[in-house]
Amino acid sequence: MSRVVHFEIHAGDLPRAIEFYRTVFDWQVEDWGAFVGAPYFGLVTGPDDQPGINGAILGRGYDNPEVGGPVAGAVITVQVDDFDTTAERILAAGGSVALPKMALTGMAWQGYFHDTENNVFGIHQPDPEAK
């Protein structure tokens, strides 16, 4: 069995993407460019003693995808404490709704957004009362 251990977010505008994820999720950003010889910014998403993985933001190398176009990679979903508060932060930071909030009955609230680079990502608030 293989496990996901890292993710990467491609961005046409690195500073804008870094600020978006820092603002919305309070992730720490570290410059890892010296390790790969190119602009590459590590994303520390939480303490090492909690479940989850870290990732990075790197240059896309081509134009950002159009909103509404096909997803060209894996979709990251981030667990949050409060769906509505996080959705407000996403919109205030320049993101937009891809698929609105929906109930995963008896499990959680789920929704999908575009970041400032038009990448799609999800947010997930566990809630056994969701319906």
Any overview of this molecule?
- This protein has 131 residues and is of the alpha/beta class.
- 20% of the residues lie in helices and 37% in strands.
- The protein has 3 helices and 8 strands, in the order βαβαβββαβββ.
- The protein has helices spanning 14-25, 33-36, 83-92, and strands at residues 6-11, 28-31, 40-44, 54-59, 76-79, 96-104, 108-114, 120-126.
- Strands 1-4-3-2 form a 4-stranded mixed beta sheet.
- It starts with 5 loop residues before the first strand and ends in a 5-residue tail after the last strand.
- The mean pLDDT is 94.
Percent helix, as a range, is: 10-25%
Q: Indicate the low-confidence ranges by residue numbers.
A: none
Mean pLDDT: 94
> Could you please say which CATH topology applies here?
2,3-Dihydroxybiphenyl 1,2-Dioxygenase, domain 1
Second-tier CATH architecture: Roll
Whole-number total of structural domains: 1
Major pleated sheet: 4 strands, mixed
Taking strands numbered 1, 2, ... along the chain, how are they ordered across the largest sheet?
Answer: 1-4-3-2
Give the termini distance in whole angstroms.
33 Å
Principal-axis shape: globular
Helix-and-strand structural type: alpha/beta
Rg from alpha-carbon coordinates:
15 Å
Order of secondary-structure elements: EHEHEEEHEEE
Query: Class in CATH?
Result: Alpha Beta
Going by CATH, what is the homologous superfamily? 2,3-Dihydroxybiphenyl 1,2-Dioxygenase, domain 1
Question: Tally of extended strands?
Answer: 8
Instruction: Please report the number of helical segments.
Output: 3
Strand content: 35-45%
